[in-house]
Amino acid sequence: MQFMQGRYGIDSLNRVITWFVFGIIIVNLFIRSGTLNLISLLLLIYLYFRMFSRNYTKRYQENQWFVSKVSPIQRFFQRQKNHAIQRRSYRLYKCPKCKQMVRVPKGKGRIAICCPKCREEFVRRS
After folding, report:
1. What is the pTM of this model?
2. How much of the chain, in percent, has pLDDT values that exceed 90?
3. Phi and psi dihedrals of 90, rounded to 5?
4. What is the rounded CA–CA span in Å between residue 33 and residue 20?
5. Model confidence over 67-97: pLDDT tens digits?
6. Nearest to 25 by CA among 43, 37, 7
7. Is the domain of 21 the same as that of 62?
8. How many domains, the chain?
9. Do 46 and 66 form a contact (C-beta atoms < 8 A)?
10. Smallest Cα–Cα separation from 38: which of 21, 54, 53?
11. What secondary structure does DSSP assign to 30-79, as a single string?
12. Phi, psi for residue 66 in degrees, rounded to 5
């Protein structure tokens, strides 16, 4: 615990690098490529360099850059997952005027839907 005091440690970029290295190592078990072996070794060295670094601000900036690039992708997949869960008992429609997603319960027949954002009214089957 004293050894890691003042060092950066593990963050989300390090976790992704770790999984990437494990993936390369598993693929390399079947392919037996020296290039993949070298790439995994270099990534492991970089991983430990980041983890044991005392330059906290630089590692934090690297991680923030990584998170800013990955978060839109994560939000997209989270949104798709939420829509899939909601589709079990709701119908999702886009407002024709403002493109706002509107959720209505399934099985109500033909209903008039009022957009909560722009108050546009449109008729759809639920």
Report:
1. 0.69
2. 84
3. -135, 155
4. 16
5. 999 999 999 999 999 989 988 999 999 999 9
6. 37
7. yes
8. 2
9. no
10. 21
11. HH--HHHHHHHHHHHHHHHHHHH-S-HHHHHHHHHHHHHHHHHHHHHHHH
12. -60, -45
Q: In terms of Cα–Cα distance, which of 66, 67, 50 is closest to 7?
A: 50
Exposure letters 69-86 (e unless 16+ CB within 10 A, then b)? eeeeeeeeeeeeeeeeee
Are residues 112 and 95 in contact, defined by beta-carbon separation less than 8 angstroms? Answer: no
Q: How many residues does the chain have?
A: 126
Q: Nearest Cα to 13, choosing from 54, 49, 55?
A: 49
Residues 40 and 65 in one domain: yes
Residue with tokens 């078990």: 29
Whose tokens are 């020296």? That residue is 34
Are 100 and 63 in the same domain?
no
Q: Which domain holds residue 23?
A: 1-86
Q: Are residues 95 and 82 in the same domain?
A: no
**Could you give the 3-state DSSP secondary structure of residue 99?**
coil
Helix, strand, or coil (residue 86): helix
CA distance linking residue 57 with residue 60, whole number of Å: 5
